[in-house]
């Protein structure tokens, strides 16, 4: 894409029209996962392990089955055997086999004629457990005395001699590390920990599944990716993917946590066993916390070399992460992100993926990157303070830019870290004077962004309005953004484009809305599909005018002769072409499918001011600034919403969110009352600055914006608290008791 | 589950006394309905008290105190200017329960009967010397608020007994109260520590004090030793230090998911100083206004 094309000004792109799904959502008309019902529907409920680690000796469901209204009970015995790899992991997480691996692990499921009967039936299922020793902490799980959760789960990467709970080992880097540290004036090494945090979406998982004895089924489900649901559920149940038709509902948040299966195969299995009656399942909040995927917890050691002028000379990171009782903690991506913001001559990374008795981790907004940033950005800040250097200047001095070879390998294209740092420096928040017990912290953050498998269709209606069919559920306003890009390309009104998220039978395979990809990838495919439709409409006009199709241009929503030599014809608008398309060759549509490349890497810079109560350790966020490169903000309000949402989740992770287990490994706080995400009154209005360094890999310059925003808050808050109190917190969450203890230790020392 | 909607306390008592199983009383429902939905309790008889005449009223009593009906909500209390002027600490405690939406339903009597040591409205009532009127199969009786809860989820109410109102004593001159709680969040949270202070001054010096501590023992504590530490003082630094020491000593918290025992004791000392200061300043501000009105 030529730069001049992506840098011109636009008619619609960059404007802020109402979102097309807005009225439905504010009036309650929008249908979420739990809003779908079907005739003859049963209600499903799940019996979950009350133990963190226990062998299942016997399951007796005879009393439950005898309860009037109970139509089916399923256990692992109702699922096929012989699965391997991630399919086996998914099946094992869906319903426990020989061993319950965490508190909340599904053991059996019931379908009954009412939700209350299903709940009563759960209490009638007798399960005999043999309680096994458990472990929930990553470092404890690596110690020799830790119980081996699944011997043999390690892959070929793990060196001999490590505990069997270590299932993956990563080791990479480049440059001469010793020379790098030798060239530094200051070398510091510190250790950090972060707690597991839940995505905390407002809408609990919900689905309605129907599966017949013939293996044909349907599912309506709240998900970020219905092809993933189809593929995973089909694998777990041993049915054919094409026979399962999956329709996504509106979605009340996902943040990565709805890119996998939990209750969906259970609903289908129950339906199959209940003679094909549809089964609805809706998780409670406690089930969401106990049994769906949070992110990993991390223990990290980082060593950095810095010259007196702030130049970074070497970086070394060792990350240990647990992602529950299954492989899959985001250790690799955390390590890739660790030094991704900086041009450092020598970097070395080592990572361990470790099993514990916790739920299987799922993706959560920039998986791994926030933990990595907490460690690296905290240490850089600490070293800046020690050397008396301005933390933003030091970041500018070392910032990656176009042409820099990244710490994880690839060379960056046009990126906006430098511009974001400069925009942060220029923001008025940085000149607000601070009072007693107040401090300012800054941090940078990175996310790769993702393209992925994408299939989009576009159809011209009889009146010239346009329907776009996409396969990426709309979480953050992507329908509005895709409508804007489509309308811009076609030269028609935004209101004349309707974007629908369609079911698995309507398009080729689409990856979920993950990796900050929906507006980028579905948007890119929609633009190309629109161009195909434009080409066809130009052909129809050419035929009507009796001229060569190459002699027709498309301008402002109409076919026009390309120039004076093409002939003198009045513009033929889209509505006119559409009205006659049945007699000029048939329906007009466009389609594009691709594994989208050309993603632009994403960088952001956050600046936070806090006040810390020195007597209670409580942190108040006074003001918060997010600066991030959007490439091109198609709908700026939704870009700002992503920035603010990422910051809000990161603030929660930094200050108060944590999984609290009792001595038996049971989760003590599976409710929002005690799992403390920030409430509205905890946060100031989060200020945003959209930097636009267009991404040449997208027709309008878009780069994904969804994930980077959660990355800098963790270190930015730690750096601000250090500035306010002199106490450096290296363990999350920075809850009042921990901050108070750190202040005490600081004064004592 | 049977749902009842009696129109008198006598009828409500009869229903409750006649129930052979589990009963729950419904006023705001912000605890009971949540417990129902969570499956923690399935009552045989659910008795809705909101339709008994007068239960949603706040009225001045003959002695100059206040009578608060059992269906009076936090939002109603917050809008009641005279009540707020007399008992700002009582009202601010109630108003910390839940969120704006919850305030529209939640009642102080429900908060009390739920039996939580962390109930935000209770320390203020205890410090104020509030009492509850009770009707039961054995007739009416009255209890000090601090005598109602006996531990988490438990009260001294006998089977069939219903609280019919809360009464606050007359405020009197040169007096003021305050409630502070500590929570990691600004709202939608449960007190890690709650402290209420109720003072009467004689000139600059404290003539009488009642101090109640929440979430640091199985029930809300009336901390007499803490009150004694400031009576007779002008709430100077020495008095505040003695107050913090006494309150911290009185606190007997547990460690749980919401805070450690050590942190709770520490915060008790911090909050009691701050709450005492606010109550003291309120007395002076109130006295100043009254003196201004007198002139």
How would you describe this structure to a colleague?
- The complex is a heterodimer of chains A (749) and B (295).
- By secondary structure, chain A is α+β, with helices and mostly antiparallel strands.
- Chain A has three domains: 174 residues, Aldehyde Oxidoreductase, domain 4, CATH 3.30.365; 194 residues, Aldehyde oxidase/xanthine dehydrogenase, a/b hammerhead (Aldehyde Oxidoreductase, domain 3, Alpha-Beta Complex), CATH 3.90.1170.50; 195 residues, Aldehyde Oxidoreductase, domain 4.
- Helix content of chain A is 28%, strand content 24%.
- In chain A, the strands form six sheets. Chain A has a seven-stranded mixed sheet with strand order 3-5-1-12-9-10-11, sandwiched between helices. Chain A has a five-stranded mixed sheet with strand order 7-15-14-13-8. In chain A, strands 16-24-25-26 form a four-stranded mixed sheet, with helices on both faces.
- In chain A, helix 15 links the parallel strand 18 and strand 19.
- The longest helix of chain A is centred in the C-terminal third of the chain and has 28 residues.
- The mean pLDDT of chain A is 97.
- Chain B starts with a strand and ends with a helix.
- The model of chain B has no long low-confidence stretch (mean pLDDT 95).
- Among the domains of chain B are: 48 residues, Uridine Diphospho-n-acetylenolpyruvylglucosamine Reductase, domain 2; 114 residues, Enolase-like, domain 1.
- In chain B, strands 4-5-10-6-7 form a five-stranded antiparallel sheet. A four-stranded antiparallel sheet of chain B has the order 11-12-13-14, with helices on both faces.
- Chain B contains eleven helices and 14 strands.
- Chain B is of the alpha+beta class.
- Chains A and B meet through helix 20 of A and helix 11 of B.
